[in-house]
Amino acid sequence: MSIEEVVKLRDVWVYYDDSVCVLEGINLSINREDFLGIIGPNGGGKTTLLKVILGLVKPNRGKIRVLVDIPERGRRFIGYVPQHSLFDREFPASVWDVVLMGRLGQAGRFRRYSHEDKKIALHALKTVEMLDFRDRQIGRLSGGEQQRVFVARSLASEPKLLLLDEPMANVDTPMQTEFYELLKRLNQRITIVLVSHDLSAVSIYVNKIACLNHRLFYHNSKEITAKELEATYQCPIELIAHGVPHRVLKEH
Q1: Which of 99, 156, 177, 243 is the most exposed place for a label (fewest CB within 10 A)?
Q2: Same domain, yes or no: 219 and 115
């Protein structure tokens, strides 16, 4: 694993119930400052792949190396925003409370938050432009606002790698562009892996794409062909480009 590699998976296999193959022989390298978009059909193993990187799912076979340039507990430096953040919307937790939770890994479960913890949480809120909402109840925010808060919670852990699983699932269309622009700015200092169904948005903002359907069909730049997408989704695919900002394929 080179010093530029943040994550390296070699021949990784994952089975559920020892019979259902979810990931098949995955070879994947994620480099520092990559913005990797992972696309593929539902049930194709995208969320499982993120959980393997997080250490939440142990592969049946293969090798995984994560942030080896950090001597101990490299996974502490991974931020994670799941597809669905389940919580009681009536629970009286403020935005500030939620973001401070990102410091629990550093502060410890039974230790008070330090001045430094609060300073880092404050900076995270400023980064996602949600500082004015710090006293608002989290359940009273819109889907897009909540996602920004959950990203801030991840940033409070000072991650070197940020994993996002369908972060636009509950975000209104007008706010999606702002959210992608936020991720693009964060990518200047953090490696990002984004699972998404939105191929057009992915093709604009990421710098690499992985096509996953149990197997990894493609992993390189963001210029993919219809043939590669058909192999991933196992059905005919027609690509439509709407000008340079939305181009998926090279000009021809």
Answers
A1: 243
A2: no
Of the candidates 142, 158, 174, which is a domain's last residue? 158
Q: Does residue 185 sit in the same domain as residue 64?
A: yes
Q: Are residues 29 and 17 in the same domain?
A: yes
Q: Looking at the structure, do residues 250 and 222 belong to the same domain, yes or no? A: yes
pTM of the complete model:
0.82
Token representation of residue 113: 């938050």
Q: Are residues 164 and 247 located together in one domain of the fold?
A: yes
Q: So what's the pLDDT on residue 162?
A: 95
Counting as low any pLDDT under 70, the low residues of the chain are 1-3, 68-74, 84-89, 106-110, 170, 221-231, 233-252
The pLDDT score that the predictor gives to residue 204 is 82
